[in-house]
Amino acid sequence: MPSGGxxxxxDLSSSAIAATVSRYGLKIxxxxxxxxxMPPGAAIGPAGEIYLGLDTTAAMSLPADHRFVDNPTDxxxxxxxxxVGAQPDPVDLLAAVLRHVTHHAAVQVNGPITALTVTxxxxxxPRRCGHVSEAANRAGFPPPALVTAPAALAAYATTLGVTVxxxxxxxxxxxxxxxxxxxxxxxxxxxxxxxxxxxxxxxRGLDHHIAQHxxxxxxxxxxxxxxxxxxxxxxxxxxxxxxxxxxxxARRLLATQDQAPILLPAPRQPAVITRDDVTxxxxxxxxxxxxxxxxxxxxxxxxxxxxxxxxxRPALGVPTLAEALTAAAGITPTLIDHPHALAxxxxxxxxxxxxxxxxxxxxxxxxLRVGDLTGALLLGACSLALLLQxxxxxxxxxxxxxxxxxxxxxxxxxxxxxxxxxxxxxxxHLAPTTWLAxxxxxxxxxxxxxxxxxxxxxxxxxxxxxxxxxxxxxxGTAVRFDYTPYLKWTLGAALPLAACAALVAxxxxxxxxxxxxxxxxxxxxxxxxxxTATAGIYLMRAALTLTTPIHTxxxxxxxxxxxxxxxxxxxxLTMSRSRTIRAITAPGLAIxxxxxxxxxxxxALIVGYLAALTWWGxxxxxxxxxxxxxxxxxxxxxxxxxxxx
Length: 645
Known about the structure:
With 645 residues, the chain is an alpha/beta fold.
């Protein structure tokens, strides 16, 4: 696909439908009807209306004149029976599914879908693949790119760090959905080549085997339910839809807990199922794994030494399947149970994205909410709190009606100026991912992410510096004294950060669209660290001046030391992103600051925090330059991304 396109990947090979959008190199999981995955079931009303996203539980409450289809893809390729009235057209049902998922994707990414990628089972041939293309055509899309589920799983595994050298083989086991499918793939230059595939068929589904096991252990020999479940049949409905759905629910619960209830048909009491019960019931599947693996390797004309890795898409609630694969293949499998794994992996194989710069990309944006401004408002409040405390606690000397001297904490005014710049950074950080009004009209196209970054950070540089200057002027006006020393501190502390914001505005639009998410995460100011520093500075000043909340000398020393310790912690957290360095330096600086706190050392402690804030801005700027000029960023990388830096 060309750079800048929007490709929707839909997984039709799993037990639930998942979708992911690739836009400018970013993979965005799609919520379908508010859910990460959509059940594949569909209902058809008497007038031909189609209802999608239904599971078997919802199907039990359908009116009698509605027809339920468990999975429209199961009908593809089957001969049409003219004797069955009102038989649904599976291609029309699949087209409705594609339209439904595509609609949610277009709404979520705020733009049209330009291409489709569909993940299909490996057993599908030209007939059913042709039906998928016809369904896409009926839904208003060109023929989609089709990727088999094993290839999608293998491609997704590579994004997790699994390495499969070119020419080597990988064994894929997809146990979701049933029946389990084993596939051997060989890596080639342009993807994967399927060498062999094999299904592991059971006489009945795994849910039915679990239901049989529970009935045998929880009912009496004379219970008629036993006769129903042991009668030879391939119809899982013999156990009853409600019982099988209860089994599926219990399997989902066993993923996070040791036991789960299963509702047996009345008047029987509910039974309790454990993971051991599932293992016993799944033994027919587990017993076939060794022979199936050997037959598959023979069919692929390889042996176990050719396997570079084994990848398992596990069956729900059957953890021993991984152990069986390990024993059969001699390699511990890589487990992949992410619901969007196949959709993401298919995109990795079908998209030919060339990372473009942020100047040409458009990240998905959401409406700005009051909650999004919380961080910026808190930083602004911290800045104002330090400014007001410095002004209100100033010691003003007068002669007659003239002010002849003012004593206040100049570094604290500098901290107020630096925090107002940090507030401007927080506001600028919202620009690329939020919008204030409705979506752009065709006559006013949506600005690119690079343009939003440039405008946001340039405004932050100018606006923050001006506000810091106003702080200095306002302080001089409030104490009725020469504003020069105050302006030097407020503006002097803010200007380094303003220069960093200006450099970011000039260079960030050159960052590759693929690197934008990680860059935005790093560019977000650390609100908690700033609040901690503000609390520390405020307590130290209050302890020295005996002002709110400190009113007696008895607690002034303790409160001042606590404030110094908080400032030390904030300084350590601001200086480095490394957890190890933070764990070492934060306690050390906290104790050291608390021990050396006096009226003479307060200014030095605050200056240390200002230096840490400036280093944060320099580090962000260096990281931005390294990403914007990747070829010449090695030297900057040594500074900005040192181990523990």
